[in-house]
């Protein structure tokens, strides 16, 4: 059981009908993607061809920030606001799409970009599933 | 001249036609709103009627995180991505709207909610202006 | 293998002699603690006796922010700075100690505080182990 | 009057004897430094000699995260914890020192590094003044 699942289980009030498995999966995916993107930006900085990776670094940094914030917003349930949740998930899916695409371009050459691209794809998918589950 | 304006001025490459005054105003509004929301959440915790303010606290926390992330995304110009910028600004405007509404409900009773609601309104407006300026 | 371990494995340059297992454990513990503290603050807001939990909420929020930042700093290896790493870990250990203590006071009554206190203890321990490993 | 000063003024409980001017100055300096460091990291990515600036970028990113977290911790007053505040300020001063030094090395060549170094120096000084004011 992940930390997010454990914390969902102990929430003392009604979680309001949101699919808890999709929610927990998305929280986990957000924090994992934030970590991967933070580390990938730094790994790019240590590559000899860093000058060719600057767009990748920038997208990594945006994606890390947005995933982190999305993981936080999804970890809160008190006074739930569907509009705000949906807008945040849309921004997160857009960031993960952009970062997954940028990293995929370098995935054959840089192993960290390949691993990070996979984290971005998982997080994008988890965001879209949760958007659909919100109705 | 604010820090954001000064940093925009020193950016070494092309800023790509974005309205720099609208951009600087939005960056400043995001960080000011993040500070106001962080402080307002804490001020609510010190009110005797905190039990009536829990939705306000939660919305403050979401708004602080989203404004902070938006201020960071807007402070980056390398490898600019209009889709990602727009989705982030939409989430920020939604958060500021929700938080401004929540704080306004208590603005007559709690001065920190009144001040915070004003910061949220300014930031929401700055986000919408920038969305329009992006075309 | 966790995301942090996978990203450490793919870092393209020398990791400089830091104990990689202790490092990966601490990164994981930081992000798990950040999630637990964010969720615990929110869970406290939904408790009927929220007025008695305000110090717990505040400490949760500090701990979430500091753990998140520490997890980010530890995910970077380029241009490593031992002094900065140590000062960050000391702040994180202090935050986890304070939050673990605050949550422990309510652990018998609130399950989320019990689970969060455990995450804080694990993270505090992981920080202290890494401080020792830094020499 | 800055946002931080305005929010301090509206805090509904006792601020506990901390020098409010030093506190407000430090909160403002933290958020300004976070913005400057975020923008400077990005500006470095757009420089032709980015390969020589990777340590500067990394230190910028650490400093942005730590200043942002410190600004948040200082914006909370409920359940004040002097130990945690001091440890956070020490980490922030260390980050600002490291980043100010890194940026100063390139200040003659890159205007954004010069402006960012000044923000780091102001923030380091504000942190040290506040540490002293805490007693």
From TrEMBL, chains A, B, C, D:
It comes from the Bacteria. CDD domains: DUF326. It holds the Pfam family Csp. InterPro entries: Csp_YhjQ, YHJQ-like. This is Four-helix bundle copper-binding protein. The lineage of its organism: Bacteria, Bacillati, Actinomycetota, Actinomycetes, Pseudonocardiales.
């Amino acid at each position: 059981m992940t930390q997010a699942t454990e914390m969902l289980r102990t929430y003392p009030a009604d979680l309001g009908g949101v699919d808890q498995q999709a929610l927990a999966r998305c929280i986990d995916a957000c924090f994992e993607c934030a970590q991967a993107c933070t580390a990938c930006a730094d790994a790019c900085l240590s590559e000899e061809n860093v000058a060719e990776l600057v767009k990748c670094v920038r997208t990594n940094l945006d994606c890390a920030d947005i995933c982190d914030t999305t993981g936080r917003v999804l970890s809160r349930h008190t006074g739930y606001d569907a509009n705000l949740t949906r807008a945040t998930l849309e921004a997160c899916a857009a960031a993960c799409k952009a970062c997954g695409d940028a990293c995929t371009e370098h995935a054959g050459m840089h192993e960290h970009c390949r691993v990070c691209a996979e984290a971005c794809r998982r997080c994008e998918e988890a965001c879209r599933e949760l958007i659909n589950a919100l109705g």
